[in-house]
């Protein structure tokens, strides 16, 4: 498994890189089956060190976890512990998923935008709005939408520890959304195709003749 360890405006020593590589390899190999690569990123947020771990599995699913602490090693340990819990919770499903998928999950290219919240002032817009009342776009990136079953989408959302996931439903091909509800359950949005109205033929005169 390829592991990339990096820091955002902070130096990462060789001892920390070795520790991270050994620990991520051990945890991912134990629970994830066949991880292909991982990325561990360290950063600072005021007095806290932050750590983000992202592990890609051979099936195409992605496991993500974050940690924060006043010590950099403690931040990593917290993120690793969260990742281990997520993998342990889904260990059996991940093994079944790997058996059922001989090929990796397909993904579709998509654009992702960061919008300014309403009420935020900037130099070009008033109240964070673009002309016409739309929220102002402050950043644009590229992303990938996975093609999944609903069950896989729920598992991916939990493995990535995100509140919502947009995906292409393999059954029918429509874009779907799963999200975590306030009551703890999972919501699923599956748009129904609109019925196409077929217009009646235009008839001239009472008997359809001109």
UniProtKB/TrEMBL annotation:
GO cellular component: a single term: cytosolic small ribosomal subunit
Subunit structure and binding partners: Interacts with 100S ribosomes. Associates exclusively with 100S ribosomes, which are dimers of 70S ribosomes.
Gene Ontology biological process terms in this record: negative regulation of translational elongation
Keyword annotations from UniProtKB, A to Z: Coiled coil, Cytoplasm, Ribonucleoprotein, Ribosomal protein, Translation regulation
Signal peptide as annotated in the record: none
Biological role: Required for dimerization of active 70S ribosomes into 100S ribosomes in stationary phase; 100S ribosomes are translationally inactive and sometimes present during exponential growth.
Species whose genome carries this gene: Rubellimicrobium thermophilum DSM 16684
Protein name, UniProt field: Ribosome hibernation promoting factor
Compartment(s): Cytoplasm
Similarity comment: Belongs to the HPF/YfiA ribosome-associated protein family. Long HPF subfamily.
Location of the Sigma 54 modulation/S30EA ribosomal protein C-terminal domain: 135-187
Molecular functions per Gene Ontology: ribosomal small subunit binding
UniProt entry tagged with the keyword Cell membrane: no
Coiled-coil residues: 73-100
């Amino acid at each position: 498994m390829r592991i990339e360890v990096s820091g955002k405006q902070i130096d990462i020593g060789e001892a920390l890189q070795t520790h991270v590589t050994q620990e991520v390899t051990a945890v991912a190999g134990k629970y994830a089956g066949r991880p292909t690569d991982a990325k561990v990123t360290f950063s600072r947020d005021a007095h806290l060190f932050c750590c983000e771990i992202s592990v890609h599995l051979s099936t195409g699913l992605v496991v993500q976890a974050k940690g924060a602490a006043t010590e950099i090693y403690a931040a990593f340990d917290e993120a690793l512990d969260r990742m281990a819990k997520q993998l342990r919770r889904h260990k059996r499903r991940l093994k079944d998923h790997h058996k059922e998928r001989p090929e990796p999950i397909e993904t579709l290219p998509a654009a992702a935008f960061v919008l300014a919240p309403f009420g935020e002032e900037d130099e070009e817009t008033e109240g964070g709005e673009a002309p016409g009342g739309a929220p102002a776009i402050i950043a644009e990136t590229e992303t990938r939408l996975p093609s999944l079953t609903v069950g896989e989408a729920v598992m991916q959302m939990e493995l990535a520890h995100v509140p919502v996931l947009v995906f292409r439903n393999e059954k029918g091909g429509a874009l779907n959304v799963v999200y975590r509800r306030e009551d703890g359950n999972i919501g699923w949005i599956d748009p129904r195709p609109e019925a196409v109205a077929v217009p009646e033929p235009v008839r001239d005169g009472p008997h359809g003749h001109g």
